[in-house]
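Hi P.,

Sorry for the delay on this. The queue was packed all week, but I finally got your sequence through. Input first:
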Amino acid sequence: MLHSKFSLSFDTDNQMVSIYIEHKVNNEKTFSSPIFHFDDNGELIIPPNSERGYNKSTFSYLARHVKTKVAQFKKYIEDEYLQELIINLEQQT
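Then the structure:
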């Protein structure tokens, strides 16, 4: 079960997701919203740690923050993205 202290915002036109979390840094609440992209098959692209910016380390931190494993978190986001795509297609018809 995923922790409830996060939210997702999808941009299906640009094939991306923003993951919003609130966490503490130096005992102060801080908000973070890293962005990840999807490939044409709806699979979440998690860049390797060798790339600057949001990468595998960032995604691992997010998974720990919501108290789940990386694979479960990735699948959850991909499933939600596919649902968003279906909703958008239905609205266009």
